Amino acid sequence: MENITLQIEGMTCGHCKQAVTNSLQELNGVENVQVNLEQNNAEVTYNPNQVSLEQMKEAVEEQGYDVKN
Amino acid sequence: MENITLQIEGMTCGHCKQAVTNSLQELNGVENVQVNLEQNNAEVTYNPNQVSLEQMKEAVEEQGYDVKN
């Protein structure tokens, strides 16, 4: 398992937090997600053999947020 | 049918808009809802014989927003 902190723009409320959390948790290989609204980021624990940064970015961006990594 | 504009605090994003819209549309007697995020309000067309302002306020406040009417 590895950890990465995604820098995410556009999250404003609890609904946004939930949307981003769900989009990442649905990916195979993502084990844990912790979104911090105040810091505009998401800490993700994942298996790099199963899921890539690019896939995580796409999942979040599909929800309407920008990922700055 | 009558119209009322609810002044709502705390809506920040499209998810909030949808949550408020749904909460009002689910009430018997509410015919139409138009949430305007920029103006922090919701224009509601309703049948006053079926639904009261108090019920509309409760529905929105249950979603976590304040109604200032």
Automatic annotation (TrEMBL), chains A, B:
Major localisation: cytoplasm
CDD domains: HMA
Localization in the cell: Cytoplasm
Keyword tRNA-binding belongs to the record: no
Protein name in the entry: Copper chaperone CopZ
Record carries keyword Metal-binding: yes
This protein's GO CC annotations: cytoplasm
Domain annotation HMA: ranges: 2-68
Organism expressing this protein natively: Exobacillus caeni
The gene coding this protein: copZ
UniProt GO molecular function: copper ion binding
Pfam families: HMA
